[in-house]
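re: that chain from earlier
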Amino acid sequence: MAQNQAAIAVPGSVKEALAIIAQTPAVIRGLLSGLSEQTLQGSSTDQWGARQVLEHLIDVEGIAFRQRIGRIVQEDRPFIRSIDPPARLHEGGYARRTTEDLLAELAAMRTEGIFWLRSLGPADFQREGEHDTAGSISAGQLIHYWAVHDLVHLRQMLKVLQDGLVPHVGNMTVFLEEA
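^ sequence. v structure.
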């Protein structure tokens, strides 16, 4: 691993992925601040509400991203197992915590994680591991996936919040394309 952050040449697409990863906690905080716990829980029992998405992002921060990238960078072609996100949420005890605590934890974890990711050298991004479902994956690909994962879940949060508001717009639904 490279130690001199100023001398590291990070590929442009990795820089953009890191920017998304770094900004996600602030986007989520801005989106969820001021909303009731009932709204954050969502109205569907078969779909995560915004709160569960937040819990999931915290849960996978370490095991699905930091640990996997760390293993790929430090070990020779490590074998990486899939996880069961819904089961992990239940086991993690996140429901007992306040939304504010979860938002603060995600922000702190991301700050630390981004600092670490920016310390990696160009060769680190090329190192590979073997995922039990996806096959061969590089650290760089996993960083890009992390950014995409954040965006997928941001879209999910937006959709569940939108779905909760649509019933209250009355006749204005004629102007909604995806209601």
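Residues 9-175 form a domain with the Four Helix Bundle (Hemerythrin (Met), subunit A) fold (CATH 1.20.120.450).
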